[in-house]
What does this fold into?
Amino acid sequence: MALEDYHKKRNFGETPEPKGEKTNRSATLRFVIQRHAASHLHYDFRLEMDGVLKSWAIPKGPSLNPEDKRLAVMVEDHPFAYRTFQGEIPAGNYGAGEVEIWDEGTYQPIERISGISDDLEMQHELQEGSLKFILNGNRLKGEFALVKLKHAHEENAWLLIKHKDQFAVEEPYNAEEHTDKNSIVTAYLEMKNAKKKMNRPEK
It folds into this structure.
């Protein structure tokens, strides 16, 4: 089962995360990037494929600068319903913290083959360990690649790389600088840091 690991890790009597099931394949593939303040702040990059969301955790967040090769660790598949999830995962649960949508939109493979659906092409590229696609998001646009590292120390390590195109930038790119001012994750982190300072013993 594609979502077996996802279900095993979660207590749906406590977490508001969607239980979800595998869905029918969409004609137009969707993607989402969720900013997630758990034990560490990171970005979850999810691509719709084969009725689920194939998922990678990106510690430093995505970049529009082709010089950046961002580590992306592949994690368990998530249900398609997770695409719209935002909110707090309660303490004591897997991934406890705050989640918000940082970017979303549609995507497609760079190489489109006649007679083969975009979904099947992306599944093939996933098996090959080299995904090349175009993102049509609000923040991320243009060509990207996800490449699996064959001899990495960390299991399931990939690299997310921006291709040089009209959407690429040359200046340093920090995803944190492109976050909404009214971000629920930022508010959560500020509250968490304030509590740490209050509980810190005086010297």
Summary: Residues 62 and 99 are 16 Å apart (CA to CA).
